[in-house]
Amino acid sequence: MRTCPATLLLTRGRRWRPRPRFAAAVDASEQETEGLARQILKDAQALARANDGELELLYAERGRIGSAESRTREIVLEGLTREVNIAGGQVHILAGDPEAALPEFAKQRDYDVLVLGALTHRQGLAPLVGTLTSKLAEGLDCDIVLVKPKAASLPVPIRQAV
């Protein structure tokens, strides 16, 4: 998961319902890779449209909901939802760490697919890249689409055929 530069689908082998339920989990904090939340939403929206599905937006707030920092991230989310035309009732701000809040909420909502970013460029978290993704892969019953930032590259050189 860490070295593949392309978007990945991790499947549980469960059949999607006729109108699949998609959720896009984004990080609206200022430390996240620029444009990744927008890319996740656009990719999730394209999947939902192609499959005549429904789309909801999820964000797990580690801090206190209603704080000044939280309100700043809510403004970012509002801007993103306007860009992709997601109604307010389809946006869910969850309290708590994503590794705990997302699987529980996803199970309650019975999503077919959760779309999320596969990389982070936060300072100091380089050794942990993939930790959240791994925990979610273990804790979710639905399929997962891992969206890579456009700037993602392989950490190992690619050899060209001679």
Give the topology.
Elements: E1 8-10, E2 21-25, H1 36-50, E3 54-61, H2 68-84, E4 91-95, H3 98-109, E5 113-117, H4 131-139, E6 143-147
Parallel strand pairs: 2-3, 2-5, 3-4, 5-6
Antiparallel strand pairs: 1-6
Helix pairs in contact: 3-4
Mean pLDDT: 80
CATH architecture: 3-Layer(aba) Sandwich
Strand tally is 6
- SS class: alpha/beta
Percent helix: 25-40%
Kindly give the count of domains: 1
Q: Gyration radius, to the nearest Å? A: 16 Å
Major sheet size, sense and barrel closure: 6 strands, mixed
Gap from first CA to last CA: 27 Å
Low-pLDDT ranges: 121-129, 153-160
Remind me, CATH topology? Rossmann fold
Overall, the morphology is globular
What fraction of the residues are assigned to beta strands by DSSP? Answer: 15-25%
Strand order of the largest sheet: 1-6-5-2-3-4
Assigned CATH class: Alpha Beta
Order of helices and strands: EEHEHEHEHE
Brief description of this entry?
The chain has helices at residues 36-50, 68-84, 98-109, 131-139; strands at 8-10, 21-25, 54-61, 91-95, 113-117, 143-147.
Characterization of the model:
By secondary structure, this protein is α/β, with parallel strands linked by helices. It has one domain (8-147): 3-Layer(aba) Sandwich (Rossmann fold). The chain contains 4 helices and 6 strands, in the order ββαβαβαβαβ. The protein has a 6-stranded mixed β-sheet. α3 (98-109) runs parallel beside α4 (131-139). The relative contact order is 0.25. Mean pLDDT is 80; it is low at 121-129 and 153-160.
